[in-house]
Amino acid sequence: MTKTTTQKRYGMVIDIDRCDGCGACMVACSLENNVSVVPPEAGLHRGLTWIRVYSITNEKEYPHSDTAYLPVSCQHCGNETPCVGVCPQSAVDVDPKNGIVSQIPERCMGCRYCMVACPYHARYFNWWDPVWPEGTEHLLNPGVTPRMRGVVEKCNFCHGRHHAAQERAASEGRSEIEPNEYQTACAEACPNGAITFGDLADKDSEVAKLAAGPESFQLLKTLGTGPKVYYLTQRSWVRDMAAKTPLPLDGQSND
Amino acid sequence: MTRRRTTILFFIIGLVVAMLAGWIAVPAALYESIEQPLGFSHVVHTSDDTGMVCDDCHHLTSEGGFAGIPKIAVCEGCHAEAIGTSKDELRLVEEYVKPGREIPWLVYARQPDNAFFPHVRHTRLAKIPCEQCHGDHGKTETLRPLKRNRFTGYSRDIWGHDFSGITTSPPNSMKMSDCVDCHRKRGVRDSCLACHK
User: What is the domain count for chain B?
Assistant: First the structure.
């Protein structure tokens, strides 16, 4: 009865030169994944955004000044995933079949060690009870459980959509899903088509080709965490800055 | 010698009392018993006369989702007019079918919100019969009352009826460990998110 399933490596390629920082990905993500609304006093550091658009500048005077926007979600590190090792609750694991890094809120005890370990600031803590503005409760996605106060949450590549795709495939007698059946909400929402999502293990997929291209790079590659989110840019200063410098946590983020 | 006998006697009495408390009194206090809104016999519906099987009423949707307990429209297919004169039959037609009201059935197998259980993957791909998890529910004459945990609101079917845990024959319970056991036996390698959402 042992089932053999194809090894997948889901990943994402984000074209920075196409991103104009509109934030549609952040909105789509929050709606898809039942991300609750935090009170105004949350400020910069205590908000909830599974994907956050950062702005970086080359710090030069006009006419040489330049700005780039970096949408950053969980990078789904494939190597020595930092958050997995530090979690005392085993609330984080990497799916052996598709490489998606999960976060199980029911197991999380809220110590936030993973948030310290994550070099990408991609993890968010629920400082308040989850609330949704009155009248928007019916917009909640039944395929995703809302998180409670006191736990960490983060991007899981819209795993609710993965579940739905699996269910549809099974109703047609297939145990594997087709590449076009599973897309993340951010990739769908981006008006400039800057985000490409797919299976990196499939050499013919668009995402694998883009990730292998000369313009691609990973955030903080020197750490050796093997992120499965790749970025593209033709601007060398963006590549240099993003590959070496930790993300700005103060004032620079575009929220 | 008598002193020792008395000690043993008291030990046994204490053990029995503790066992009764742990296995009978505590569960009885922990679970409230709620009657179903209407009498229903699965046996009558699945008998040779009707020739119906589980998924005639509990079917899968075209998207692969599980429809669960059928809507009143499904009942109406046969029960537009009362069949027979039993009290429950008349109530079904008068209170639910004619006004088009849904019957507020209580679901024994309702899982917590964070559990993702795709019926279609289990029944169609793995070919697991319904009875493996739900037991011989289709052969019951009456609907037993729902035992609901006073604190969590979950059905006792989830935790299991046998508190001793000695029974190994399915379906004792629908706990996460039962899912995990079966997945391991079948060599399904999974992460948390495979079954949690």
Answer: 1
Q: How far is A16 from chain B (nearest CA, A)?
A: 30
Minimal CA–CA distance to B137: which of B67, B32, B40, B50?
B40
How far, CA to CA in Å, does A200 sit from each of A11, A62, A161, A242, B168?
Answer: 6, 39, 18, 21, 43
Query: Dihedral of CA A205/A207/A211/A215: which sign?
Result: positive
Q: Are B192 and A104 in contact (CB < 8 Å)?
A: yes
Q: For residue B58, what are the domain limits?
A: 33-69+105-195
- Confidence (pLDDT) at B13: 96
CA distance B152 to A174: 36
Whether residue B158 lies inside any domain: the answer is yes
Task: Note the pLDDT tens digit of each residue in A14-68.
Answer: 999 999 999 999 999 999 999 999 998 888 789 999 999 998 888 889 999 999 9
Q: DSSP letter at A78? A: -
Residue B77 resides in a domain: no
List CB contacts (< 8 A) between A83 and chain B: none
**Tell me, what amino acid is at B179?**
C
Q: What residues of chain B, 126 to 145, have a C-beta less than 8 Å from chain A?
A: 126
Predicted-complex ipTM score? 0.81
In B80-161, alpha helices (H): 87-91, 119-120, 131-134, 156-159
Q: Which residues of chain B have pLDDT under 50?
A: none
Query: What's the pTM?
Result: 0.86
CATH architecture of the domain covering A14-244? 2-Layer Sandwich (3.30)
Residue B60, in any domain of the structure: yes
Which residues on adjacent β-strands are paired with residue A253?
Answer: A54
Residue A162 DSSP SS3: helix
Residue among A94, A97, A104 minimizing CB distance to B196: A104
- Residue B183 covered by a domain: yes
Closest residue in B to A171 (Cα–Cα): B64
The string of pLDDT tens digits covering residues B87-124 is 889 999 999 999 989 999 999 888 988 899 999 999 88
The nearest CA of chain A is from the CA of B194 a distance in Å of 8
Task: Give residue A175's pLDDT band: very low, low, confident or very high (50, 70, 90).
Answer: confident
- Judged by CB atoms closer than 8 Å, whether chains meet at B186 and A167 is answered as no
Closest CA to A67 of A17, A26, A122, A13: A17
Beta strands in A184-242, from DSSP E residues, in sequence order: 195-199, 216-217, 229-232
